């Protein structure tokens, strides 16, 4: 695994969520998070940070059920902003509007705040530290952690700025999923899809491309062997991964050889992981 270059590769393209009320969700994601509407109709909306690339798709599910807590699915999706000042301005904006923050953490390689949308979908907003300061472990991955974020120090970055929504350069940085089994997840994401392990213990697994600290995190903190939620449950519908042509062909061959069912249409692979999370694998531009 080569060293991370510091370039934010668009490995996680966009996320689609099923929501209970599109208007309520749009209000939240525009006014609190800072996305812009790229396209919308009566029941769906595409949201973007830069006005060009979609990063979040919302679909109102009329016959929705709330996602049961002890099921697989979204733990949080993570929005990475370009600078520490951008994170500080987002935090200050949320605090000033009285929106509840669920956590604020220093992960060594990044600084992050956590909250939830109106349907209780978990969201992380974070900024990466300089990759030269990331600490390697003996297995070639990265040493992370969950220390308290120095909020006062972070907010000092906001003094010379003004919040105007999510800035250009914002991406979906990673996904964090509740899964049913760590070993089964490792077989799928590492052996089949070809991602690299950057951190692992008995209850969690982080994997990535490009030596990043993680593009997909997985945990069984809510228990092992959890079932998938109902199809009409609120929350994650699918997310996309962007692969090079070589990675795409390798993943397709590995999926076949390892016996995973998938569908391919116009150079797009649709597949479920062993926990029932839907993924679409697309060719990178």
UniProtKB/TrEMBL annotation:
InterPro entries: Glyas_Bleomycin-R_OHBP_Dase (IPR029068), Glyas_Fos-R_dOase_dom (IPR004360), VOC_core (IPR037523). It comes from the Bacteria. Residues 11-128, 171-284 form the VOC domain. Coiled coil: none annotated. PROSITE patterns: VOC. Gene3D superfamilies: 2,3-Dihydroxybiphenyl 1,2-Dioxygenase, domain 1. This is Glyoxalase. It comes from Pontibacillus marinus BH030004 = DSM 16465.
């Amino acid at each position: 695994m080569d060293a991370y270059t510091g370039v934010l590769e668009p490995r996680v393209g966009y996320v689609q969520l099923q929501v209970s009320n599109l208007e309520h969700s749009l209000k939240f994601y525009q006014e609190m998070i800072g996305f812009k509407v790229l396209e919308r109709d009566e029941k769906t909306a595409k949201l973007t940070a830069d006005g060009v690339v979609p990063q979040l798709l919302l679909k109102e599910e009329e016959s929705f059920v709330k996602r049961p807590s002890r099921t697989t699915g979204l733990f949080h999706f993570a929005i990475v902003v370009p600078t520490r000042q951008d994170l500080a301005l987002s935090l200050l904006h949320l605090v000033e509007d009285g929106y509840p923050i669920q956590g604020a953490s220093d992960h060594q390689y990044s600084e992050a705040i956590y909250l939830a949308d109106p349907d209780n979908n978990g969201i992380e907003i974070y900024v990466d530290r300089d990759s030269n300061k990331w600490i390697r472990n003996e297995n070639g991955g990265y040493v992370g952690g969950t220390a308290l974020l120095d909020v006062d120090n972070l907010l000092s970055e906001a003094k010379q700025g003004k919040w105007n929504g999510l800035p250009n350069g914002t991406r979906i940085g990673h996904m964090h999923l509740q899964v049913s089994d760590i070993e089964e997840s490792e077989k799928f994401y590492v052996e089949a899809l070809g991602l690299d392990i950057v951190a692992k213990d008995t209850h969690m697994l982080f994997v990535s491309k490009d030596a990043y600290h993680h593009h997909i995190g997985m945990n069984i903190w809510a228990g092992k062997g959890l079932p998938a939620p109902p199809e009409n449950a609120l929350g994650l519908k699918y997310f996309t991964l962007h692969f090079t042509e070589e990675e795409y062909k390798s993943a397709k061959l590995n999926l076949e050889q390892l016996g995973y069912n998938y569908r391919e249409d116009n150079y797009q692979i649709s597949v479920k992981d062993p926990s029932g999370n839907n993924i679409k694998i697309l060719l990178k531009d």
